[in-house]
Amino acid sequence: MALWPVYTGSGTPHDGITRLPPPPPWRAFDGAPLLDAPGEGDAAAASPDRVHRAETYRATSQTVQLVNAALYLRRPLLVTGPPGTGKSSLVYAVARELRLGPVLRWNITSRSTLHDGLYQYDPLSRLYAARHAQATEAGIEEHLRLGPLGTALLPYARPRALLIDEIDKSDLDLPNDLLNVLEEGQYEIPELVRGARRTPTAQVMVDGTDDRVPVERGRVRCRAFPFVVLTSNGEHEFPPAFLRRCVTLRLRQPDDDRLAAIVRAHFDGEPDAYAQTLIDRFLSRVGGGDLATDQLLNAIYLARSSDLGAESLDELAEQLMPYLGDAPHTDAF
Q: In the chain, what are the domains?
C-alpha cells in the first residue's frame, strides 16, 4: 500500500521509500542491470558538517508536502529562497530519513556544463598510458569517471539523492541542457559507445568513491529516478520549459517559532535569555536585507561558549550578523 507522506520531516530514519506507489506512466524507467543502493555505512562516512545538517534540519509543513510531491511524481525539486534558509540542507535531511545513502553533490559555477555533471574523461592520461602499453578501446574505462549527475542516473534499486547547488550561477544554457537528461532519465557516453562492439560492458568508477559499476554499450538509464534538489538564490530566471518540469519550493526566512526550533536542534535545549534576545534582534533586521540563519547560530554559539560581558557580546554579534552582500555594519543593533 502506498504511503503518504513518505518523507515526514521527523528526522527518524525509516524504509518508507519502499512504499512509494509506481511512478506515473510517463515517468517510468527500466534501466539495467539493477544496482544495489549504497549502504548506510557509506552515508555515515560523510563529513561531520553534512551529518549535523541532516540531523538538525527542521522542515515546514509546506516543505514536507512538496518533497513528497517530487518523490511521487519522480520530478526534480527546485528550491529557491534567500541565503541561509536551509536550501541545501534539505537534501541531506531527506536522504538521512529515507536511507538513500550518501548525497551526491554538484556545485555549479558559471563555467559548469552538462558534461561535467555526467562524466569526466581524461584523454591525456590515456595517451600517456598508450605510450607505455598496448592501448585498446577497452582501456578507455580506466580513464573515465561518472560525475554526480551521471552517478545518480545509474539503475539503482532505490533513488539516489543528488544536490545541484546554486543552479542560478550557471551559464544560461545549462538549465536547458539538463531538460532532456532529467526528462529521459538517461544519457550516453560516446567514448564507450564507440568501443561497445569490442567491450559491451565497461566497469566505470562512480562519483565520490573508487567503486566501479557496469555500463552496458555506453548507455546509462535509471531505474528509480533520483531525488534531485536544485537550489537557487534567485539570481536569474529559468526557462519556462525547465520550470514546468520541476516541483518548486520557495523558502522564506524562518519566523520566531521556527528559529527557536532550529536553535533547540543545534544546541540541544531551549534558547536562554540572551539567545532569545539575539533571535529577536535577528528577526527585527531581516526586513532590511538578507541575513543567514547560520550567522545567528554563530553568534549564539559564541555567547554560550565565551565569558564576554553583555556589551562585548553585543558588539561581537553585530559583526557576525551583517547583511549578506553588504560591508560589515558598525552601528549598534
A: 16-250 (3.40.50.300), 256-320 (no CATH)
